[in-house]
Amino acid sequence: MKENDKLIELQGCPYIIGHYGDDDNVEDGRLPEAEVRYFTPLILKGLKHIHQHEYVHCDIKPDDSLLVSSSSDSSLIKIVPKIADFGLAERLKKEVKTDKPVYLKGTPSYMAPESICRNEYKPHSDIWALWIVVLEMLTG
């Protein structure tokens, strides 16, 4: 329910996934470099949209970058990336010092060093994770 609320607020960008249920769709393997060069700027546009709405995704990883068929007319079908899984997304906020315990958000192998060391989640943390995704798109 919390994720649905975030998704509703973030709609309006063709690079943000709508909610289609709770099934997992995982794509294995490496992509040709030309496709990675095509998909990466589109994912960046999706992240820009998220960040402009003052959210940080907090868990960018291959499982949350879905490739979806899209068509602008009936004769042209293309594949576009869509960012999914907003369950850990957080509103950007000003730094607040607290004595509360620190809980990491996200998948550790995609987390930026400042997220792990200082529990800091900002737009650049999503960009760090995206570059790891790009590497995995190229290498499988």
Automatic annotation (TrEMBL):
Record InterPro entries: Kinase-like_dom_sf, Plant_MAPKKK, Prot_kinase_dom
> Which PROSITE patterns does the entry link to?
PROTEIN_KINASE_DOM
UniProt cross-references to Gene3D superfamilies, sorted A to Z = Transferase(Phosphotransferase) domain 1
Q: Give residue ranges for domain Protein kinase.
A: 1-140
The molecular function terms of the Gene Ontology recorded here are: ATP binding; protein kinase activity
- Biological process per Gene Ontology, one example term: signal transduction
Q: Which SUPFAM superfamilies match?
A: Protein kinase-like (PK-like)
Name of the featured protein: Protein kinase domain-containing protein
